[in-house]
Amino acid sequence: MHEPCQNSFVADRNSFGKPPASSTLLLINTFLPSFLRFLGFLCFSAAAAVVRKRSALMAFSSSISYAAAATLVEGCRDYSRDLDRFKVSCSSLNQRLSSTRIQTGIFGSPILSGEASSLQISAASSFQPIKAIATEIPPTVTKLSSGGKTKIGINGFGRIGRLVLRIATARDDIEVVALNDPFIDAKYMAYMFKYDSTHGVFKGSIKVVDESNLEINGKRIAITNKRDPAEIPWGDYGAEYVVESSGVFTTLEKASAHLKGGARKVVISAPSADAPMFVVGVNERTYKPSMNIVSNASCTTNCLAPLAKVVHEEFGIAEGLMTTVHATTATQKPVDGPSMKDWRGGRGAGQNIIPSSTGAAKAVGKVLPELNGKLTGMAFRVPTPNVSVVDLTCRLEKSASYDDVKAAIKFASEGPLIGILGYTDEDVVSNDFVGDSRSSIFDAKAGIGLSASFMKLVSWYDNEWGYSNRVLDLIEHMALVAATHN
User: What sequence ranges are listed for the domain Glyceraldehyde 3-phosphate dehydrogenase NAD(P) binding (predicted)?
Assistant: First the structure.
């Protein structure tokens, strides 16, 4: 008697165990199991690849519904038992496909059968508020009456003042028309501007015309040496916006002295106790034309805020602690010296790792009110000349893997926050970011996740160059807002 085919799908319950009625049926019984096993193998391989790469699941789900995917997995379950070389079981895959996290991906609501589920649609709904519009000139906005360039003056020719000038010479939307520093004459300004130990020799041309004028790349810049900002005749030079980079006039009252000299607006290149603070890419949309004096916050806040915004809007930040490993700055001492307010800060900068306070994390609560009271932090000053790194250790409100968070940050860095937030998965160190114009560059390899809601995120920043770029971006955004209201 013919042995029944235990793997046959064509024998029904009534005829099971009986000989096949024809040679055709015999062929079917003989070859169909092998064919179905091969088909099951293909289904299993495709589904396993989907699980390994969640971004592929988004494209996969746009062509077949979740219900169809579950059916394929169920069908291949019985034919994958002999495929011992695959480590992921169909049962586990089916559970993953059934989970809310997989269905939602990283960008939005559950993907239901028949719904549009493209990455662009999901991303638009989740990340629309994050947009670095200060680096984009809307085509409907007309240029200002000053010949198409926003004319600015700089008060304080230190690290930030000099780099703001360098960057401005390479932009076609900004023109520096005047510089003021009470302690540096024109010749010394030219020398300090041309030679920079960190960022190299200035590649353009610079010459001293006289004690009151420099010429950079063929354009004349007026020089003054006033101690009182109210005495600087910004209006005479056509400077509409002033970069207050002396580090002295950081309050509304003190910075308002520039308005007496004819300036229309003042941007403080430091945190301020009472001036409105803005971080480009985070909250510059809240700027109003009536605000005459604003702060560009700190370099560390500019690094932390875009990162925190992306993570909070996608997963929610319940609480977090930030540590910045910060390069040496001019406020520190080369060797041990007196520092009455901060004894540790008086120790030699080149010899020590110095714990220090910072208000950068708390300041994020000012530019992102929903994070107010949820973040705080500290700093370690280290003996390197430039480039710092933020370590944000946070607990999330939603369950998410470290890979989920990386994917959200990468998406923002390539779209809504391009030019502001960066992403790298290479084996980088601090010197690799000297001269990087972005505010924050997320290091995917340096971070780590402990659980589904607790992880450490690491992001680099050139605390001089990146920050100076944002100063000019903020000014141009203010100018564009002013143009739309005129």
Answer: 150-299
